[in-house]
């Protein structure tokens, strides 16, 4: 079984607004935001974006305020999205850190989910019209970045399946009522992390228990982990960006043929 899904590309985006954004007038911010949304929707349409999800950090990290998953069927779509997102004038006032990834063993880690979150219903409105954006408080998100320690890599080859990790964490997931668990593997590993995880849980207590499980020995010794708590960011609105793409897909397929 392959350990990653190569049928699409997922942009992992750490984003935020620079202090200079708040020095603009209300009209400038509104105008720049509308121009930005119109541009990004056109890119999403042209390249068939299949997912746009935002997460609002409960504790912002300086100018890093939100984490995004943006999925395209091709690398070309991801490249054009990044270029458009950083385009002025809006792009002059943002913090951008992008990493390209593949979905990591989705069929495996989906089995850890014990209380699946209901599907997000897209907002029934034109996505070009920007609503009031807000954090969804119905659940809590743990964003985890991880990288195996060097001494653990050789051991991983000798211990396929990592029984010391999988069995205990599946039990923790069941006890916590995990609503969603997704992994992403970086195409270009970073010094501090090579995988990212989105774990949705029903409460802060469940999030604490899950993090405690991840940090428990012996498996915690094998990897460096970094955790951030977040809420889903206006999920119904950003799901409507993808709904629009689904509506135009038949035309795009016809032209391609």
Describe this structure in words.
The chain has 257 residues and is an alpha+beta fold. The longest helix is centred in the N-terminal third of the chain and has 22 residues, at 26-47. Helix content is 36%, strand content 33%. An eight-stranded antiparallel barrel has the order 1-3-2-8-5-7-6-4, surrounded by four helices. The protein contains seven helices and eight strands, in the order E-H-E-E-H-E-H-E-H-H-E-E-H-E-H.
Task: Compose a concise summary of this entry.
The protein is α+β, with helices and mostly antiparallel strands and 257 residues long.
The largest sheet, given as strand count, sense and whether it forms a barrel, is: 8 strands, antiparallel, barrel
Shape: globular
Number of strands: 8
Q: Which whole number gives the mean pLDDT?
A: 90
How much of the polypeptide forms β-strand, as a percent range?
25-35%
Written as H for each helix and E for each strand, in order along the chain, the element string is EHEEHEHEHHEEHEH
